[in-house]
């Protein structure tokens, strides 16, 4: 692919002023296989993880979890935990993991209750050795103002509507070390306006747009803006970003647009065409490779 650059003009100019160098060529690997084993990645090779797993106890993922032998809340989280373990292994010291997750509500044995996926994931990450950082609440403007669960206007059997998802942030070990005046780091800076919005706790970002394909919605693709912000906040030009639950390839696309390398794992082979379609654009830089592994489904 070409060497045209999408990175903001002002950032590029600053980078060139520092170094009179070109942006690094980037590579993007897509593995169609199970991320509970990421044999293609060495220990401490990844600078940043951005991902959104299937959400336990949300009905759209029941069949997928069932096909992997998981029926209960615990089994679903134990299954995801195998991937989180690999994430810990491959992340560099000081690297950040960003996990987008929503809680679930469900009637089980006649009782309506909350399944707090975000708190279970925090517990698992803490056990693995990650440090939990202040997290982001992604508030999706709702197009369903009547999503209220209950009847009428009298106490006390109604439920609060879940209209936020979590973007959990974790760090592995101490702060990341950079060489003094690392030009890639300085060229990757953000503006004050960006910082003020991106580092505030509530993000108002619309969910995936209606014009996106049926399959995109079925997979639960997240908006590009979410990945863009996280990638700019927690990585520098030339870094390697991992998404162990790649879905339609959103993370790879944003990495390609922003001069980061990437690796993505997706277990379902029927998403390959959608991934290729998303990445097959003249505006994306770097090369991508797709490898089919035997453990895909
Ligand atoms: C919530 S979706 C990710 C959507 C993605 N963020 C996007 O923008 O398209 C989760 C994805 O993880 C995949 N998946 C589930 N278990 C997996 C595993 N063990 N290894 C790799 N992919 C897995 C599912 O097939 C699904 O496509």
What does this structure look like?
The protein has 297 residues and is an alpha/beta fold. The strands form 2 sheets. A 9-stranded mixed sheet has the order 8-6-7-3-2-9-10-1-11. Strands 4-5 form a two-stranded antiparallel ribbon. α3 packs across α4 and α8 crosses α9.
Question: Which ligands appear in the coordinates?
Answer: S-adenosylmethionine
Strand percent estimate: 15-25%
Number of helices: 10
Radius of gyration equals 20 Å
Extract low-pLDDT stretches: 1-5
Mean pLDDT: 89
Helicity level, as a percent range?
25-40%
Q: Strands of the largest sheet, in order across it?
A: 8-6-7-3-2-9-10-1-11
**What profile does the largest beta sheet have?**
9 strands, mixed
Helix and strand content put the structural class at alpha/beta
Q: Would you report the number of β strands?
A: 11
SSE blueprint and pairings:
Blueprint lengths: L8 H11 L7 E6 L13 E6 L10 H6 L5 H18 E11 L2 E5 L2 E5 L1 H12 L1 E10 L24 E9 L10 H5 L4 H7 L3 E3 L9 H6 L4 H11 L5 E4 L6 H8 L3 E6 L5 H8 L7 E6 L5
Parallel strand pairs: 1-10, 1-11, 2-3, 2-9, 6-8, 9-10
Antiparallel strand pairs: 3-7, 4-5, 6-7
Helix pairs in contact: 3-4, 8-9
Bound molecules: S-adenosylmethionine (SAM).
The site of S-adenosylmethionine (SAM) has 20 residues, from β10.
Give a brief outline of the structure.
The chain is of the alpha/beta class and 297 residues long.
Which terms would index this structure?
alpha/beta; 297 residues; 10 helices; 9-stranded mixed sheet; binds S-adenosylmethionine; 24% strand
């Amino acid at each position: 692919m070409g060497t045209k650059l999408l990175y903001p003009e002002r950032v590029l100019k600053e980078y060139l002023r520092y170094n009179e160098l070109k942006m690094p060529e980037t590579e993007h690997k897509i593995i169609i296989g199970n991320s509970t084993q990421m044999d293609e990645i060495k220990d401490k090779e990844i600078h940043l993880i951005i991902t959104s797993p299937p959400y336990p106890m949300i009905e759209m993922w029941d069949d997928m979890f069932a096909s992997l032998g998981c029926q209960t809340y615990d089994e679903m989280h134990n299954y995801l935990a195998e991937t989180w373990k690999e994430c810990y292994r491959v992340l560099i010291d000081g690297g950040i993991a960003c996990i987008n997750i929503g809680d679930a509500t469900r009637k089980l044995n006649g009782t309506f209750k909350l399944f707090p996926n975000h708190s279970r994931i925090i517990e698992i990450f803490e056990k693995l050795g990650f440090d939990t950082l202040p997290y982001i609440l992604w508030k999706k403007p709702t197009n369903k103002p009547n999503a209220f669960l209950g009847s009428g206007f009298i106490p006390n059997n109604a439920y609060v509507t879940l209209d936020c998802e979590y973007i959990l942030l974790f760090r592995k070990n101490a702060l990341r070390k950079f060489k003094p005046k690392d030009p890639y780091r300085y060229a990757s800076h953000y503006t004050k306006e960006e910082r003020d919005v991106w580092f505030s706790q509530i993000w108002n970002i619309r969910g995936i747009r209606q014009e996106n394909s049926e399959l995109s919605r079925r997979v639960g693709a997240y908006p590009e803006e979410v990945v863009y912000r996280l990638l700019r906040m927690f990585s520098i030009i030339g870094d390697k970003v991992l998404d162990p639950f790649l879905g339609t390839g959103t993370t790879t696309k944003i990495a390609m647009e922003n001069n980061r390398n990437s690796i993505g794992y997706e277990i379902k082979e029927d998403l390959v065409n959608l991934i290729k379609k998303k990445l097959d654009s003249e505006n994306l830089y770097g090369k991508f490779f797709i490898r089919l592994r035997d453990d895909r489904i």
